Amino acid sequence: MIFNINNDHKIDIDKLLAIAKQAGAGILKVYNDDPENSSVTYKADESPLTLADSVSHQIIAAGLAALTPEIPLLSEEGKNIPYEERKAWDYYWCVDPLDGTKEFIKRNGEFTVNIALIYKDKPVLGVIYVPVTGIMYFGGSKIGSWKIAADGGVKHLFLSPKIDNWTAVGSRTHSSDEEAALLAKYNVTNIISAGSSLKFCMIAEGSAQVYYRHGPTMEWDTAAGHAIAIYSGAYMAMPNGEPFVYNKPSLLNSSFICSISRVIAE
């Protein structure tokens, strides 16, 4: 499958997915070789950082540089790019080499590799790979959203908004009273938890209908999942209904809602 950026530039999706798999293999090597997670350090904000984050970043950075040398990279592990420089970017890669580091440390398998292509302020292509299960999700403008099972089976993800009883999905490590208050306004009959960007994948494949995050995330936390969700037919916006955008002066995100139909937190 080919993703057309413009008349002069195209991305081979198979090669992009292969980069995500290679990064996942690098993560699993650390995961399996370091059962005590002795390589964990902590950033200034006390969020954890593992050797696997660095290994994955290096694999993805090298792979994307070879695949699309003309497109700059913004990664959690290489994020110190001044806004004055990146504001001129039309396209750029937005990458979280290991989303769900806390899940990695807990060893519950719910961590992912996230790679997204942003055009100006909107994700136009997203890839999420789950190293432990071998499941791949991807979605993009004009190609739709897809799931590739570990055995190679391919499924087109396309949502139906006509569901009466909703399941809400939320974070395993971040929740709030505001989230509970919003869900109480709608016909949510079940609430489940999941780590990392898997919550967006659950929206895209229809196993959950709403994901509300109250509180900050970073752009690389959401970009790939945002793409996969919206190109499956989901809706994503800020709680007041305003667009959820990227390449902001601050890379910190506000709250958001991702759901199978328009939901506004009044």
Task: Provide structural commentary.
One of its GO terms (cellular component) is plasma membrane. It holds the Pfam family Inositol_P. Converts adenosine-3',5'-bisphosphate (PAP) to AMP. It comes from Mucilaginibacter mallensis. Keywords: Cell inner membrane, Cell membrane, Hydrolase, Magnesium, Membrane, Metal-binding. The strands form 6 sheets. This protein has a 7-stranded mixed β-sheet, with helices on both faces. A 3-stranded antiparallel β-sheet has the order 14-18-16, with helices on both faces. Helix 1 packs antiparallel against helix 2 and helix 6 packs parallel to helix 7. It has 2 domains: 156 residues, Fructose-1,6-Bisphosphatase, subunit A, domain 1 (Fructose-1,6-Bisphosphatase, Chain A, domain 1, 2-Layer Sandwich), CATH 3.30.540; 94 residues, D-Maltodextrin-Binding Protein, domain 2 (3-Layer(aba) Sandwich). With 266 residues, the protein is an alpha+beta fold. A hairpin with a 3-residue loop joins strand 9 and strand 10. The protein is built from 7 helices and 18 strands.
Strand content: 25-35%
Number of domains: 2
State the name of the first-level CATH class of the largest domain.
Alpha Beta
Total helix count? Answer: 7
Summarize model confidence as the mean pLDDT.
Answer: 89
Main beta sheet: strand number and arrangement? 7 strands, mixed
**Order of neighbouring strands in the sheet with most strands:** 5-6-7-8-9-10-11
Q: Just name the CATH architecture of the largest domain.
A: 2-Layer Sandwich
Q: Helical content, roughly?
A: 25-40%
State the total count of DSSP E strands: 18
Structural class: alpha+beta
State the shape.
globular
Cα distance spanning the termini? 41 Å
Are there runs of 5+ residues with pLDDT below 50, and where? Answer: none
CATH topology title of the largest domain: Fructose-1,6-Bisphosphatase, Chain A, domain 1
* CATH superfamily membership of the largest domain: Fructose-1,6-Bisphosphatase, subunit A, domain 1
Keywords: Cell inner membrane, Cell membrane, Hydrolase, Magnesium, Membrane, Metal-binding
GO molecular function, one term: 3'(2'),5'-bisphosphate nucleotidase activity
Membrane topology: Peripheral membrane protein
Cofactor: Mg(2+)
